[in-house]
Amino acid sequence: MLSSGMTKHTKNSPLPIVTQVKKAFLKKNRTATLAGFILGGFVPLAGYTIAHTEVSVDPHLWVLVGGSLSYSAWTVIKWGMIAFQNTFKAIGFTILAEGTMTFSHTEWLSVAGLVLLIVINGVATGTNLALDGQKH
Asked: Fewer Cβ atoms within 10 Å of its own Cβ: the N or the C terminal residue of the chain?
């Protein structure tokens, strides 16, 4: 890692996100990609729903929201580091996206965060399942 937070690309670096997605959507990988998208996308959907509709009735459910954020944040940070090639930007993006989805009272903004996180988590999990055992 460079001192500016930039990640130096090497032979051992993960493939760029677009390359990962292209490989994941090859005909032979589509079933695994779809299954992963459903699994990964469920996590932010559940976290959003619980945070915006259920915790007001039962505050103990914040534990489930925390689990959702923990799962999702790590995935978003890893993807952000590839996409932005900057650790600081990846962490900032993750905090903003997760925080907006969870805490924003502006409905369109929290839903936009939700959709973004469903796509990132869904595609990341789908790519992981589809490319299991391959360098990605």
From this structure: N
